Each structure stands twice: as structure tokens, then as C-alpha cells.
Amino acid sequence: MILLFSIVLAISSLLLILLVLMHKGRGGGLSDMFGGGVSSSLGGSSVAERNLDRITVGIAVVWVVCVFALGLLLKVNS
Asked: CA 32 to CA 47: how far, in whole Å?
């Protein structure tokens, strides 16, 4: 069970990194340093951006559940 949660945690960690990097910069942060502030915003978010937000939140929830589950399993096993 610990191995399963460890694998899911590793996969969700990589997916979370990829999904966060795919988000469009909102300005005023590190994204401006890398040229994100040059692009013009068309006002409002598109369907693709909203879906990306939902997927990112879903993967983040899976990541948090795996962290808690691994913590409990390792505490019980030691």
C-alpha cells in the first residue's frame, strides 16, 4: 500500500509541476521576468484555461490525499 501511494505521489507531483508551468502568467510575478508580461490579455479566461485550472486543482487534491495517507501509513507501520 505504501508503494502504491508513493508511486501515485510521484506521478501527481510531476503532473502538478507540468500543469502549473502551463498556466498563463497573470503579471506582477516571476512570469514577467521571463517575458510573460509582454503578452496582451484578451479579457476573461477561455474554456481551455478554466479546464486547466480544474485539472490542476484535481491533481493537487490527489497529491494532498497521498501525502496524508503516506504519513498515516508510515506512522502506523513504525
From this structure: 23
